[in-house]
Each structure stands twice: as C-alpha cells, then as structure tokens.
Amino acid sequence: MFVPEACPICGAKPDPKLRPFCSARCADVDLGRWFTGQYRVPAKPEEDEGNEAD
Predict the structure, then answer these.
(1) Rounded to an integer, what distance in angstroms lies between the CA atom of residue 40 and that of residue 22?
(2) If you write DSSP's letter for every residue of 42-53 in order, what string do you get?
(3) What angle do CA 18, 11, 14 make, to 5 degrees?
(4) Fewest CB atoms less than 10 Å from the CB: which of 8, 43, 49, 54?
C-alpha cells in the first residue's frame, strides 16, 4: 500500500489515523477544495445519444 511521506496540504509528516493528512485541519482544507471546485476530475464530453437505436 502506498503511504505518502508528506501531507499533500502542508508537507508535514502524515498522521497514520488521518492518512494522507497530518491533521484534521489539513483534511478539512482538502475537502473544502473539492466543494469549491478547485479540484476537478477530467471527463469526456457527452456524445449525442439521439443516434442510438432503442
């Protein structure tokens, strides 16, 4: 299993209970970034579904 060597938010040593974060604060910062749209998962544009046979 991959265990990061540093917290992705602040760079401190991760807490095993909060892995990969070092604190609840850093975990909350990361969650806030997802909620505000700073992180995005790339996706393909949807194709026209009207051409499919039913």
Answers:
(1) 23
(2) --PPPPPGGGS-
(3) 25
(4) 54
